[in-house]
Amino acid sequence: MMIEYEEYLAATSVAEATQALANGNVTVVAGGTDLMVQTAASGRGVGTTLLNVRRIADLRGVTVDGGRVTIGALTTITDMLTDGVVADTAPVLAETADRFASNQIRNMATVGGNICNASPAGDMIIPLMVLDADVELSSWVDGAVATRTVALNEFFTGPGKSVKTANELLTSVSFNRPAEGFVGQFGKTGPRPALEISMVSVGVGGVASNGSLTNARVVYGAVAPTPIRASKTEAALEGTSLDDASIQSVLDVADSEVNPISDVRASDWYRRHLVRVMTQEVLESVANV
Amino acid sequence: MSEAIEKTTLIGKSITKPDAPDKSNGRTRYINDMVLPRMLVAKIKRSDRAHAKVLSIDTSKAAAVPGIQAIVTADDTPMVGVGVTKDNPPLKKDIVLSMRDELVAVAGETEEAVDKALALIEIEYEDLPAIFDPAEALEEGAHQMHDDKPGNLSLGYQTVHGDIKQAEKNSDHVLDEVYDVHYVTHVCMGPGCVIADFDTHGKLTMYTQTQYPYNYKMDLAPSLGMHPGDIRVIQPPVGGAFGSKLDVYPFEPIAVFLAKKTRRPVKLFFSREEEFSASPTRQPARFHIRAGVKNDGTLTFRDVDALLNNGSHTSWGATTPFVMMRTFTGHFRVPDVEFRSRAAYTNMPYAGSFRGYGNVQATYVTATVMDKLAEAVNMDPISFRLMNAQKAGEVTPQNSKLEECFLGECIETVAEKTNFLEQYNAFKAEQDSPGRYKKGIGIATSFHNAGGAKIHKSDGCGTVIMLDDYARATVITGASEIGQGIDAVLTQIVAEELGIPTESITLVNNDSAIGPWDVGVHASRTTFIAGNSAKRAARKARDQILDAAAQRSNVAAEELDLRGGSVVQNDNGVPVMKIDSLLRKMHFAGEDAELVITHDYYEPPSEPEGDNHVGDISAAYSHGAYVAEVTVDTWTGVVKLNKMTAVQDVGRVVNKLGIEGQMEGGIAFGIGYGLTEEMIIEDGEVKNPNFRDYKVMTAPEAPELEFHFIENDDPDGPFGAKGIAELPTIIPAPAIANAVYNAIGIRFNNPPLTPEKVARAIVEKQAAKVAAE
Q1: ipTM of the complex
Q2: What is the pLDDT of residue A280?
Q3: CA-CA-CA-CA torsion for B214, B220, B221, B225, nearest 10 degrees?
Q4: Which chain A residues have any C-beta within 8 angstroms of a chain B C-beta?
């Protein structure tokens, strides 16, 4: 049964939006590409007031301030594909955007929405976690907008769940400009090359030199209730010279660290298999850098 | 006099479907868009149990929702079944047999009110043991689904030719294998929808997506307690049918019950989830096939046992063995053949007709078995097939008369165009060498009726043609347009006969009160049957016009032709008079006044099956040979189809654009069947009723397509044309499976070849290899 919204609000500033959130019973809509499907299928949607945040112009776009890159929550996936700052600082985000859903969905879907939907298979989350990103959460406190920052790695608590409270709005995501020599890779798989929800997604990052990675990051999607950082795999990878044998031992660690389920999209066996082969693919390409 | 007009032909040219501009501009008003004054909307409350007693249904809270106008249950209905064997009462009483079973329907002023009411209906169940596997349903002591169907047996078919025991003794190799083919669904872009509207005389107008408007009245009427003559069928534009609208399904009489109760028009429509979970599927089946061959490559026998999951009720799916057996017995020269099938009731969804009609399943088996037999006798896939291919004049055991037969030509052409054997041998040699990506090439062939199929008392179609004072023609045909393009084909045929531009033709085919009878859109029959009828009606109009022209000139009718809107002299093309001017002279001729109105009813020269399913059921047959070229990612198991080359005997191309569209669309179904599409059904419940998890092919993975049409005029076809629309759906999947075998040396008897299935098989093969070493 469809959710019936009783009130519709369209905020034009973070102050307006957070005040509306403070009144409670609000469902936030930005691109709507997840929400509209979930509403029709009687899914999520927490309140009967529909709050459109899409008109908050300040929240769209990518900026660099010193060594810090900030992506406004309303930046679309298409923006990520075409933005010069993204291409310059973190091309792995553009590569991921290129694998994201379809053109029509990318035109509407926002980076903030992809994070807030908190799907274990959310595509943009994976490279952002590889980049050690933080999210900014805004709320209306004592007559003013207050913000707090949470590491993306600590943001998710379960499928569709996060530490964001009902009165908070995710306003941006930011990360330090990656060091010289940083390489980032994203991989996902499903039967279709487009319009596909990942059966497994993998992100790997680090500074590559002489066939090894330092400051390694390994992130998996769709193998646990939330996207996960595979810290043991990262440790196994750190500074290891990537030859066939060492890659195999890294894969064994990765296998021990994921905990996938079986569902209509894939069995746990296949997800484990994909973790191995997709990680191997990414590591072999890093080894050749 | 004006300049001579050269003789040209429209046949074989590309013409745009008349409805294409409106569809591409979003102007088409589909049935789903229609709103009638005072119309109510309606939805169905279905069972959420696979098999249960219904203890009570309480609709009191639902009825209290503002805007609700009527609620119906089985108690409000005559309880007369619909469907092929009439075993499916529109609303179920006391017992539900599947998750899709209809229990209550609600009509109200708005969709929101109806949704609210549906959620407030309270149903008490007592679960009964459910059976999902057809073999289990046939076991002794299994729970009986229908009182009048002992042993849970639905429909069975059997055909026996020759002596397979003796033939087996004469075989050097015998293949003995089991195949399991799966559930897929049509995925119509326009979900199920119907509008029922009574007038004050009690006559019913049905706005429906049906693809067989005339027998539809006959099939629908008993469930309503009405006379078929009191039902008028109007067919607004539909968003796809593909066989799914070839029967009456419960939602249609349910809309009528509500319309009758409320005395208002009622529109009942499916959600996307219902379109996946409550519309008919393709028939799944388990085949046990035994097939023999001699060392010299000669086929000796085929023996096939088919077990069909009938599901809870019976629609056309259970009759698909009718078509399966023609392929098992008649595709390639096999002297001794037997086919037996049984369909068993279970608590699963039920299947309907679906483009390819049983031949998709049968060809998956025969085309992969042919590859296996070739390997057994160390022959290549091409020579082996050519050696066993029938030639013109041969007759299949079931008496399909292959008066002309281009199977060999199809195989030779596709092999040559794809450089098949060279690629095949190279890829085979690479199978066990290192490397993540493996390429493969595979061939599959089939045959199908291409001149209708006489499964009803008549396989005919009627046409009326009227010409107005401006030489504009109205063509009224019984043939329905469900996207397949008969509108363009008939326009072309009539324009060709009458020498007028295609723009001068208006086609009318959406109202059973206007159009003459037709058996329906199915069996690749419409171009052949409706095309012949239209051509014959147009020929009568042409004769009438030429006679009138002869009377008004000093040229004999036989020496005249119709070209470019004029009556011309046949030998030199010199115009004698304009057709529109002649038509006006004929019309306003006082006592001799005449209008050009002609009609025709065409019955094809085919025969119904007699005993043992023997009969030349179609006026023509057609063969196709397709080659798939794939790359298998041996890590992820993803099979990428790079190219499909299709060679098909089509008689003659009528609308080039139309035939290419039919090939492309059909192949897309075939690829989905082979690689990605699968209804995942657990304990009777469809688990992936959405586009996210039911994987239809999308544009980026569409392969390169190459078509070669073998054109030899069929003696009975309109301008030599044959029906073509099902082979493109039938042949691709086994071509892909054979290509995957060529790439990685693994056979799959259970499509689709999903990444997981392929990856698992590769890992198991590697493990077995390691264990052996």
Answers
A1: 0.93
A2: 95
A3: 180
A4: 1-2, 4, 41, 102, 189-195, 197, 264-267, 269-270, 273-274, 277-278, 280-281
